[in-house]
């Protein structure tokens, strides 16, 4: 399917192995391949361009070590740079949820995996961190979504806020806060309504909810297979409501994960977790090394 970057580069560099240093021309040729590989891995064009420029500066003039081929050396430089861009100052698995009850707002488009990720994360917080978690669905437009969260809650042994028909999202959020406070919960998670596309109504509703509870974390859940769309969604949510991190779902699929790089580059916000399946345990802490390897193929 995809030709790996290492394969491409070893072809490009076959005739250059005897040279002592990477010349500007060698690097240019190699970087053309790097750019194609990034685009095939779903990295957006401006991000791929910027990235290639950074690598170019690092690679030009670098001495070729004896033990590796120039192709391998460029792949290493690209790999290290990918990891550098994907790694932030923060520890992806550590959420800011110290003062109980800490609100976590889950946002995203419909079908991206928001409800599933809410429950997966609740399970993780309960089991790994020993937190008492309350979940509430604010999706008043789709009663099935509210029930879905309730079913998942029962399955993983995490409480959900009782459903009251006819309440507005902001009022449900306030009720969740109250129940979390009175009930001595450490964390309450708000699963907001998704839409098929970003629209003003959705955004202003999420803004209102955010203002009402002042979330400690606002996590955007996006489908890692949607490439450029995922990046646009991340940018828009970050501009409008400010996200603190990203959960990238469907990374068990055969996508190459380039959206992770684009999102990090565009929003500067960390990818925190990765969804790797439909089961409740299929949530992993984001590891830059693994995504970098995947992007390179
Ligand atoms: P929401 O509309 O954003 O709340 O999306 P859901 O949480 O209902 O998820 C939509 C579908 O995607 C469900 O069938 C989930 O089981 C599935 N799903 C969610 N996350 C993942 C994931 O990481 N990998 C896979 N393979 N499926 C997922």
Automatic annotation (TrEMBL):
One of its GO terms (biological process) is SRP-dependent cotranslational protein targeting to membrane. Keywords: Cytoplasm, GTP-binding, Hydrolase, Nucleotide-binding, Ribonucleoprotein, RNA-binding, Signal recognition particle. One of its GO terms (cellular component) is plasma membrane. It comes from the Bacteria. It is a peripheral membrane protein. It is an enzyme of class 3 (hydrolase). Its EC number is 3.6.5.4. It catalyses: GTP + H2O = GDP + phosphate + H(+). The keyword Hydrolase applies. One of its GO terms (molecular function) is GTP binding. Residues 270-283 form the SRP54-type proteins GTP-binding domain. It is found in: Cell inner membrane; Cytoplasm. GTP binds at residues 108-115, 191-195, 249-252. Part of the signal recognition particle protein translocation system, which is composed of SRP and FtsY. SRP is a ribonucleoprotein composed of Ffh and a 4.5S RNA molecule. Composed of three domains: the N-terminal N domain, which is responsible for interactions with the ribosome, the central G domain, which binds GTP, and the C-terminal M domain, which binds the RNA and the signal sequence of the RNC. Belongs to the GTP-binding SRP family. SRP54 subfamily. Involved in targeting and insertion of nascent membrane proteins into the cytoplasmic membrane. Binds to the hydrophobic signal sequence of the ribosome-nascent chain (RNC) as it emerges from the ribosomes. The SRP-RNC complex is then targeted to the cytoplasmic membrane where it interacts with the SRP receptor FtsY. Interaction with FtsY leads to the transfer of the RNC complex to the Sec translocase for insertion into the membrane, the hydrolysis of GTP by both Ffh and FtsY, and the dissociation of the SRP-FtsY complex into the individual components. This is Signal recognition particle protein. It comes from Maritimibacter fusiformis. The chain holds residues 1 to 297 of 495 of the full protein.
